[in-house]
Amino acid sequence: AQSVTQLDSHVSVSEGTPVLLRCNYSSSYSPSLFWYVQHPNKGLQLLLKYTSAATLVKGINGFEAEFKKSETSFHLTKPSAHMSDAAEYFCVVSVYGGSQGNLIFGKGTKLSVKP
Amino acid sequence: DTEVTQTPKHLVMGMTNKKSLKCEQHMGHRAMYWYKQKAKKPPELMFVYSYEKLSINESVPSRFSPECPNSSLLNLHLHALQPEDSALYLCASSPGTTSYNEQFFGPGTRLTVL
């Protein structure tokens, strides 16, 4: 069975400093992994996805994530935080086969950015 | 057109009302989804439509009734809701039904049940 764990419920950084949001997954198969961002009272926006191609995935707004099979991790990083990055971030794994469309969401990490 | 639209943005209804949420996409996607999201929680899957047929119903109460009139449109009919049904309702679509397809989300409808 697939599962995903976001290791921090809240991360606070200063503007201009690096961002690291941690995610570990569990999957019996080669997973598809996604990071979504949700700004307050908004829908979810796809930041990036991993689907067994390059292990370093670049996304929108300067975010990137590295798939590490040995560590079962898919951490999200950004070199320099911007005030507009403050939002909720969800790490998501897609269920392999079976019921299509089933995304398993992590509980989310709230990113705060201080001026 | 690369977005999913949802109407209305906000909805307030009484427990005896009947209302509908609407979702539309023009990306040619063949799968569409309804999610419910409570505050400070991740979205919870409610229904999945694949090629306009209901393929997943995650044990949702019958007071929620989905409908997919065509490949671009998805409705969620609401009747006799309870206050605990107040939440953000998100619609999403994806190109296909395989596990590597990302889902594109709409902005949501904020529902308040009085």
Note the main attributes of this structure:
heterodimer; A: mainly beta; 6-stranded mixed beta sheet; globular; B: mainly beta; 7-stranded mixed beta sheet; 4-stranded antiparallel beta sheet
Structure overview:
The complex is a heterodimer of chains A (115) and B (114). Chain A is mainly beta. In chain A, 0% of the residues lie in helices and 53% in strands. In chain A, strands 2, 5, 6, 10, 11 and 12 form a six-stranded mixed beta sheet that branches. Chain A has a four-stranded antiparallel beta sheet with strand order 3-9-8-7, with no helix packed on it. The radius of gyration of chain A is 14 Å and the shape is globular. The termini of chain A are far apart. In chain A, 34% of the residues are buried. With 114 residues, chain B is mainly beta. Helices cover 0% and strands 56% of the residues of chain B. Chain B is globular. Chain B starts with a strand and ends with a strand. The mean pLDDT of chain B is 92.
What is the percentage of strand-forming residues of chain B? Answer: over 45%
- Look at the structure and give the mean pLDDT of chain A: 91
Task: Report helical residue fraction of chain B.
Answer: under 10%
Radius of gyration of chain B: 13 Å
**What best-fitting shape of chain A do the alpha-carbon axes yield?**
globular
User: Count of DSSP helices of chain B?
Assistant: 0
Largest interface: A-B, 26 and 30 residues
**How would you spell out the order of helices and strands of chain A?**
EEEEEEEEEEEE
Tell me the distance between the termini of chain B.
36 Å
Walk me through the topology.
The complex is a heterodimer of chains A (about 120) and B (about 110).
Chain A: E1 3-6, E2 10-14, E3 19-21, E4 23-26, E5 32-38, E6 44-50, E7 56-58, E8 64-68, E9 73-78, E10 87-94, E11 103-105, E12 109-114
Parallel strand pairs in A: 2-12
Antiparallel strand pairs in A: 1-4, 3-9, 5-6, 5-10, 7-8, 8-9, 10-11, 10-12
Chain B: E1 4-7, E2 10-13, E3 18-25, E4 31-37, E5 44-50, E6 53-57, E7 64-70, E8 73-79, E9 87-94, E10 104-105, E11 109-113
Parallel strand pairs in B: 2-11
Antiparallel strand pairs in B: 1-3, 3-8, 4-5, 4-9, 5-6, 7-8, 9-10, 9-11
